[in-house]
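user: Here is a favour to ask of a fellow structure person. I have my own habits and do not want them to colour yours. Could you put it straight underneath, so I can go through it closely?

assistant:
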Amino acid sequence: TTIVETKGHRFESEIPCSRLDDVVSSEDLQRIKIIKIDVEGAEWSVISGMPEVLRSCSESLEIVVEISPKRLVALGKSAREILRVFEMAGFNAYELINDYSDTAYLPPQSTKSPTRLTRPVEERSVVDLVFSKRNFNALKVERYLLNKPNLLPKP
């Protein structure tokens, strides 16, 4: 089943899943720099399956999570619970401002560095966060341009 609103339709399928803790070796965990989680409201299911990743990762690992607070509430969870899991593991939360409009992909494009999360996320439909063990007011933007490679600095 899906947690996404289906507007009267019902879709079902079985998808085999594994916990991230079960598929990432400890050696790989030390080399991984970024994990991106974009699961349309099922963030809690993913994050609750990676306690060992959060405990044993390298200090340079950063985790980008698209959080859908209202969908989380429908599943009995909250964005605050997700923030708390990362906080307890020593991560700081930064907001990654993403423009999903059609024109955002056309030149000229601009980017903003992720900045320390200061606003509540619960009332927003979607918020992109970066969790990092780095302790700064802002992070370098180049690491998070996963969907806009043309904005990366030229070598």
User: Anything to note?
Assistant: The mean pLDDT is 82. The beta strands are 34-37, 62-67, 92-95, 115-116, 127-132. The longest strand covers residues 62-67.
